[in-house]
Structures are given as structure tokens and as C-alpha cells.
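Task: sequence design from structure.
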């Protein structure tokens, strides 16, 4: 997706499909290691029929919590509607699309490294975390 800055906290994202609608998102929490993102929590406001791509090569697992409206998660397994108050879990390596319905959609996304990746990281040293 193409990201452009609107102001210090809200950005617009245009989906990768031709004629895609513009969506607004705000990063609430982000944690990275070296040159990669490890975890992120974002708030999205999708206009009606906006489409965002699920990219299998990003190396993350994702949870989509729909706060308002309804979206459809389309993958090789089929289309799955997700309504306000529901969560869709998107495993690492999943290709597909997230599509808003006929009404605007608000959702929170939570991304984290896949277990196959985080299991290979060195263990955290608790002594370094305490003052």
C-alpha cells in the first residue's frame, strides 16, 4: 500500500488495487528491532468499499478487531464477514484482502511476529529490565 502523511498522527493509505478508496489510520503503539517492525497496534477508518491487501511476506500475524461497521476478509479459504465486536485472526503467510462493506468501518489491528520467527530470537534477560 502507498502511505502519505496528512499530519503528525493520522496518515492516509491507498490500497494497492486500481481505484481503491483512501483510508485513514493512526499508529497507537509500535515496537521494532533493528530494521524490522515487531509489533504494532493501529486504528483504521475505512470508507465504504475500501480494500486493503493482506501481504503474506510481511512475516507477521494479525488480529483485526472491528469496532464499527462490517468488513469481509477474503483469502484462499473464502470470504469471511467480520462485524462490529468480532475479531478476525490472520495467520502469517496469508494472502488476501480486507474489504469494507457498504458503510464505513472502524477497526483496530494488532500485528506481532509469527511464532516461527519469535522462537528464534534470543531470550530476554530479566535483569536488564529491572532498575
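Answer:
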Amino acid at each position: 500500500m502507498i502511505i502519505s502523511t496528512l499530519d503528525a498522527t493520522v496518515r492516509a493509505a491507498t490500497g494497492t488495487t486500481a481505484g481503491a478508496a483512501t483510508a485513514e489510520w493512526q499508529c497507537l503503539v509500535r515496537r521494532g528491532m533493528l530494521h524490522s517492525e515487531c509489533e504494532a497496534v493501529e486504528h483504521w477508518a475505512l470508507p465504504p468499499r475500501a480494500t486493503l491487501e493482506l501481504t503474506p511476506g510481511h512475516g507477521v500475524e494479525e488480529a483485526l478487531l472491528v469496532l464499527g461497521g462490517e468488513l469481509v476478509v477474503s483469502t484462499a479459504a473464502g470470504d469471511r464477514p467480520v462485524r462490529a465486536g468480532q475479531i478476525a485472526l490472520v495467520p502469517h503467510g496469508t494472502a488476501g484482502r480486507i474489504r469494507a462493506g457498504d458503510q464505513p468501518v472502524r477497526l483496530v489491528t494488532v500485528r506481532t511476529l509469527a511464532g516461527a520467527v519469535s522462537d528464534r530470537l534470543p531470550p530476554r534477560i530479566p535483569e536488564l529490565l529491572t532498575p
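The radius of gyration is 16 Å.
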